[in-house]
């Protein structure tokens, strides 16, 4: 075999590859020339058996031709891929608009509340929505004649179980099963037989409580004032007002100056100039005793926040039903 014959093979290859315009044909010509039974391998096998003086030179020539063929194949592949990647697109066509979902205003409000209390070391527990009367009422120092026990106020499943009326039921579960001291937020849905512009049968509540030593009203007031300033961006005026809850002693309600009338008086604040925002107090010693906690060593504070109420005040929403009607025009505002 002569060197010229090997280069003739290369020239034939160059002519053939010019007519190839798809990957399938590229793979075929690759096998034809460089495959196990390809033309170049047959030349290699032939030269290995031959005993000519220029055998070494011929083998070098075959290797050079093989390298050149390989380069030509890869170049052709790149050309084909580039042609296939070009998209015939009319850039004058108006773009498609997609409605992108976002976090619901209730979830956003809950996230904002959690963000603050996490800084103070509170852990969050969602808890259970179906509970027994003991955890929902009895253990929380609620007397048998308390109005919230009535069928008109509470969704009973049977004589023993009910849909929880507040997230305070988690106080009992956590105080009986967790190590002291503790700081928890109980977040989730609660259920009451109530329905008007500012109430729904299901709503969201966040209960926060601390069980430690030497807890005082100063701790309670500091945490809540810091939270309200954080949530409303330091734009509110607050006041603490004495109240009564069976599970706290002493008990307070926190009011803020009405956003809608600036304290002058309107239908939202019932002409008082103030809007009730949350209830709070120091945990009643009877509850601590019920959970086998010594009230002479430990004491605690608790507060309950209505998520919908906070959102309604912050974003000036006048109908609570808007949160649950899935009105896209309303939800897109947030």
UniProtKB/TrEMBL annotation:
Domain Aminoacyl-transfer RNA synthetases class-II family profile: 161-313
Co-factor binding details: Binds 2 magnesium ions per tetramer.
Cofactor(s) the record lists: Mg(2+)
Annotated localization: Cytoplasm
GO biological process: phenylalanyl-tRNA aminoacylation
Chief localisation class: cytoplasm
MF terms in GO: ATP binding; magnesium ion binding; phenylalanine-tRNA ligase activity; tRNA binding
Catalytic reaction equation(s): tRNA(Phe) + L-phenylalanine + ATP = L-phenylalanyl-tRNA(Phe) + AMP + diphosphate + H(+)
SUPFAM superfamilies in alphabetical order: Class II aaRS and biotin synthetases (SSF55681), tRNA-binding arm (SSF46589)
Signal peptide: none
Coiled-coil portions: none
UniProt key word Protein biosynthesis: yes
Binding, Mg(2+): 249
One cellular component term from this protein's GO annotations in UniProt: cytoplasm
Enzyme nomenclature, EC number: 6.1.1.20
PROSITE patterns named in the record: AA_TRNA_LIGASE_II
Gene3D superfamilies for this protein: Bira Bifunctional Protein, Domain 2 (3.30.930.10)
InterPro entries reported for this sequence: aa-tRNA-synth_II, aa-tRNA-synth_II/BPL/LPL, Phe-tRNA-synth_IIc_asu, Phe-tRNA_ligase_II_N, Phe_tRNA_ligase_alpha1_bac, Phenylalanyl-tRNA_Synthase, tRNA-bd_arm
Entry annotated with the keyword Acyltransferase: no
UniProt keyword annotations, A-Z: Aminoacyl-tRNA synthetase, ATP-binding, Cytoplasm, Ligase, Magnesium, Metal-binding, Nucleotide-binding, Protein biosynthesis
Subunit organization: Tetramer of two alpha and two beta subunits.
Family under the similarity heading: Belongs to the class-II aminoacyl-tRNA synthetase family. Phe-tRNA synthetase alpha subunit type 1 subfamily.
Protein's recorded name: Phenylalanine--tRNA ligase alpha subunit
